[in-house]
Amino acid sequence: MGIRKKTASKNPPVLSHEFVIQNHADIVSCVAMVFLLGLMFEITSKFAVIFITVQYNVTISTNEGSEETAVNHFHHGIKDLATIFFYMLVAIIMHAIIQEYVLDKLNRKKHFSKTKHSKFNESGQLSAFYLFSFCWGTSILLSENFLSNPVSLWEGYPHTLMPFQMKFYYICQLGYWLHALPELYFQKTKKEDIPRQLVYIFLYLVHIAGAYVLNLNRLGLVLLVLHYFVEFLFHVSRLVYFSNENRQMGFTVWAVLFVVGRLLTLSLSVLTVGFGLATSESQGFNWAAGNFNILFVRITVLAAICLTQAFMMWKFINFQLRRWREHSQAQTLKKKPVSTKSKSKKDKGERTLF
């Protein structure tokens, strides 16, 4: 059964751009099904399992009282690229399901303009992803006791071994943000919106992959959960704003938490990388052991985090100034009799504010 509904009125040529865009979810589903069918045959199962299951399993025996138990951990490697590719396909399929059965139905009920339509779809997709990632990441933090023991963020570095949930979390994160690249084509993103989306996709991929490869996975997980919670509030507030433009309280709450989130991100990063790793006994560079605890790497990591936070604050300040300017113009226009032409310009400005 196809995921995306087809219309009988338009049948674009096979393998044309419009055909691929309309049927991309079905095409990707067939590709993913090939890997799943590969598990059924002995000849192809060894190849298919690289794409579907998490690789690089390490079994560690631990003694708990008089019983010996085996605990499975995982480290990263080149085969993870295949697994990331498969879950990128899964993300494309899930994106199409949410779009078809949730967002498109809401759009038809609300009758949004073209500008609001694209922004509503973006916030709808991202709010679902941020909520899922925040809940999943929080459960990992609680189960591994990272929140109750902050010293574990740098103690025992390099953290080459990860529990299954943590490694699978990073695989899914990288797969999701990679899927956002072809979605720019599948969703017919406007040319003026592509640079903005490419910037934040690139920033996500660089920071998540950097934490994963440099074995800073614990710090990366904490920062991701913190960041996703703040971003979830923003996109939910924007969805509420689109349904009722008088409801803007969510943006006020988000603004406060955004600044707090930036301060916590910088504090945790400096504490972990600048102080924790700098005073750690495991100094030096060893690629085989996964140890990257040298001054150059620490400075590079802190510089990347600080520059990113500064860039986000700059965007945040511009956003707040634009809101304040639009609000001031709206208050001025309420005090004066406005013509139809000026009123239409005001409505247009409000529609594109968020």
Automatic annotation (TrEMBL):
Pfam family name, one: TRAM_LAG1_CLN8
Gene Ontology terms: biological process: SRP-dependent cotranslational protein targeting to membrane, translocation
Keywords tagged on the record: Endoplasmic reticulum, Membrane, Protein transport, Translocation, Transmembrane, Transmembrane helix, Transport
Ranges of residues in domain TLC: 118-327
Membrane-traversing stretches: 84-103, 198-215, 221-241, 253-275, 295-317
Transmembrane is among the record's keywords: yes
Region named Disordered: 332-354
Membrane-related topology note: Multi-pass membrane protein
Subcellular localization, as worded in the UniProt entry: Endoplasmic reticulum membrane
Protein name: Translocation associated membrane protein 1
Phylogenetic classification of the source organism: Eukaryota, Metazoa, Chordata, Craniata, Vertebrata
Gene behind this protein: TRAM1L1
